[in-house]
Design goal:
By secondary structure, this protein is mainly α. It is built from 10 helices and no strands. The chain starts with 22 loop residues before the first helix and ends with a helix.
């Protein structure tokens, strides 16, 4: 099974095209993902050692980690494009469902993203972690907050939506239907953020709920654009609060 194109729901004279996506494609991507996570940081550090022989993993700054994360996301999206365009000879835009959204207004999507961010912050305040999660330790300076904000607002939503609600959602939907696509992408989305939220299990549950909502909107709209707008609005509100908090706490007195 496969999602129809937005204007094809009224066509009754054409059979639905057979999906090209199989479990083998999911396994190939999973293997490439694991290899990227394991080998890319090692490769980058080895290159870095050429210019700074004394560099250790513990010495990586928040900015360095943001650059590394951005590089990993770029490699993954590039591999997805390779699978779609070269291996399966499909349209990249149609495969990830980058279609115009007719289901939800832009204002509603922006408001939903901001509301989710505020809700997460409020709920998290009632369930504080025993120790600050890694992301809070990384965001301990104004510079780190600003760099994270630029990446988190300008690049991360697009990369993550292409990976999760674009490619993986499509493959999982073709394999097991909408229930599998929504639930599994939400779980994988939460696992992606697990290193940043380690120790804050309430935060992990909340990010799973956010991921579930993003995937559900993707399902209802049959388009990647609405979840991308929500994700961008969500990150913008979160980083706006972090930036304001950092300025108040560490700004000039």
């Amino acid at each position: 099974m496969s999602f129809p194109l937005p204007d094809s729901e009224f066509r009754t004279d054409e059979p639905a095209p057979q999906s090209p996506w199989r479990i083998a494609d999911l396994i190939v991507f999973a293997v490439f993902f694991l290899l990227t996570v394991l080998l890319l940081p090692i490769t980058v550090l080895r290159v870095w050692h050429i210019f700074s022989p004394e560099l250790r993993v513990a010495d990586l700054t928040a900015v360095d980690q943001v650059i590394l994360q951005g590089l990993m996301n770029s490699v993954l999206v590039g591999f997805i494009a390779f699978l779609i365009k070269v291996v399966h000879r499909q349209s990249f835009v149609e495969t990830i469902h980058w279609f115009r959204n007719h289901q939800f207004s832009t204002g509603f999507l922006i408001s939903l993203g901001a509301t989710l961010a505020i809700s997460v912050l409020l709920v998290s305040s009632f369930f504080p972690a025993g120790e600050p999660p890694p992301i809070e330790r990384l965001l301990s300076s104004a510079t780190a907050v600003y760099v994270f904000a630029i990446f988190g607002i300008g690049a991360a939503p697009l990369f993550e939506e292409i990976i999760f609600r674009g490619f993986l959602f499509k493959v999982l939907f073709d394999i097991g239907g909408s229930g599998m696509a929504v639930s599994v992408t939400a779980i994988l989305f939460a696992l992606l953020h697990l290193p940043q939220l380690w120790g804050s299990w309430g935060g992990v549950i909340l990010i799973f709920i956010v991921g579930y909502i993003l995937s559900f909107v993707r399902l209802r709209s049959n388009s990647l654009i609405p979840s991308f707008i929500i994700h961008t609005s969500y990150n913008t509100m979160l980083f706006g609060v972090f930036a304001l908090s950092t300025f108040v706490q560490k700004g000039p007195r």
